[in-house]
Design a protein that fits this description.
Elements lengths: L6 E3 L8 H5 L11 H18 L4 E6 L2 H12 L4 E5 L3 H12 L3 E5 L9 H11 L3 E5 L1 E2 L4 E2 L3 H10 L3 E5 L11 H4 L3 E5 L10 E6 L1 H5 L12 H8 L10 H17 L1 H21 L3 E2 L10 E5 L6 H12 L1 E5 L9 E4 L6 H17 L6 H12 L8
Parallel strand pairs: 1-13, 3-4, 3-5, 5-8, 8-9
Antiparallel strand pairs: 2-10, 6-7, 9-10, 11-12, 12-14, 13-14
Helix pairs in contact: 2-10, 5-6, 11-14, 12-13, 13-14
The structure holds pyridoxal-5'-phosphate.
Pyridoxal-5'-phosphate (PLP) binds next to helix 3.
């Protein structure tokens, strides 16, 4: 293991650049005074630019689950919500909406896939939902809802609100909140934005603001309160100021490098990693149209235990990849492709996985895998660290 720390290829949290982490060590300030107001407004402005919205942005001292719950607690009661079943996180989204008083219908699909857009259209027609709630990138099987934009358009044209959990996609995949007609979008700090965990946020369109329920089923996440306090650049409750600093710094890096470039870096790296892992005998778990760009899931080569591979990578090299969730536990390996990962880290991962396979007696040409990796990245630059 390296004194420089672990190499995180889990789907969040991700390695955080030292200057971004160091922001959190700044002297404490009052969250009811001018200096905080500047930080808060700058943070919200940068989030608006990353999300591509002119709407409201509310920031929470909570992980991504808090942001999703805030959306549900302020919109669900008495409404009908339709959810495409994409995995564990769509199940959580459906359950969260249900607990906050929605009648929820889930359009199921086989594990590692999503219902087709056509099926979603049919269910929209039948169920007539008030809300269509979607997970853009379902982190559990690594499923990307590739028709998100089209489904949002359909939903809006029928007068439904669109609610998107984009926790594992914001900053790592294409997104245009206003242009795509997303009324509520939830994101978090610790994934493709490459900041420490603990801050999450939602965007709210005008339609969303005018649809907030009168008495939300939450006290802490009462969005009207957040919007009221935001008028004077404050949060209703004590914010995690150090994490606000860090997230602001992480967003500054992304915007200075260029948002398009940051997202493209994730896409190119995803293509390179899929190829390199396939070269070593792994099989992509998700069919191409729904394959995630930020969480890559693979069935391991025959005879390889996911649990042992993960344990060996962690203990020998300090490299962390994830296993599956729920029914996929120990069946798939998930490789997080989030944040400022460079060529050095990619080669280290591929070489370490290759070395472990060889230790298990599996014939694998590690240098061919590295060649494939470099071939895909070539000309584009690893773009990372
Ligand atoms: C799609 C998705 N939604 C929600 C969450 C929950 O986020 P958190 O763990 O920050 O609460 C995650 C976390 O992995 C996620 O991937």
């Amino acid at each position: 293991m390296s004194e420089l720390g672990d190499l995180l290829f889990v789907p969040g949290p991700v390695n955080v650049a030292a200057p971004v982490a160091a922001e959190a060590a700044k002297p404490m300030i009052s969250h009811r005074a001018g200096r905080f107001h500047e930080v808060f407004e700058d943070l919200r402005d940068k989030l608006r630019r990353v999300l591509r919205t002119r709407g409201e942005v509310v920031v929470f001292t909570a992980s991504g689950t808090g942001a999703v719950e805030a959306a549900a607690a302020n919109l669900a009661r008495g409404r009908r919500a339709l959810v495409p079943g994409t995995g564990e996180f769509s199940a959580r989204l459906a359950e969260t909406l249900r607990r906050h008083g929605a009648e929820v219908a889930v359009v199921e699909a086989e594990v590692g896939s999503a219902p087709s857009l056509e099926e979603m259209r049919e269910r929209l027609e039948e169920f007539q939902p008030d809300i269509v709630a979607m997970v853009y990138n379902d982190t559990s099987p690594g499923v990307r809802l590739s028709y998100l934009r089209e489904l949002c358009r359909e939903a809006k044209s029928r007068g439904a609100l669109t609610l998107v959990d984009a926790v594992s996609a914001v900053g790592g995949d294409e997104l245009d909140v206003d242009e795509w007609g997303i009324d509520v979008l939830a994101g978090a700090s610790q994934k493709c934005l490459a900041a420490p965990p603990g801050v999450s946020f939602i965007s709210l369109s005008e339609d969303a603001v005018s649809s907030l329920v009168d008495e939300p089923t939450t006290f802490y996440f009462d969005l009207r309160k957040y919007l009221k306090f935001a008028e004077r650049s404050e949060t209703p409750f004590t914010p995690a100021v150090p994490l606000f600093y860090s997230l602001r710094a992480a967003l500054t890096v992304i915007l200075e490098r260029g948002l398009e470039r940051w997202i493209r870096m994730h896409m190119v790296r995803a293509a390179a990693l899929y190829r390199a892992f396939e070269e070593m005998g792994f099989v992509a778990f998700v069919r191409r149209p729904y394959r995630s760009r930020t969480v890559l899931s693979f069935k391991p080569p025959r005879g390889v235990s996911v649990r042992s591979l993960r344990a060996a990578l962690a203990s020998r090299y300090g490299i962390y990849v994830a296993g599956g969730l729920g029914g996929l536990r120990d069946k798939i390996v998930r490789v997080g492709n989030m944040g400022p990962i460079g060529l050095r880290e990619l080669i280290t991962l591929v070489a370490a996985v290759g070395a472990e396979l060889r230790r298990l007696g599996i014939r694998v040409d590690v240098s061919a895998a590295i060649d494939v990796l470099e071939e895909v990245l070539e000309g584009v630059g690893s773009g990372g660290g």
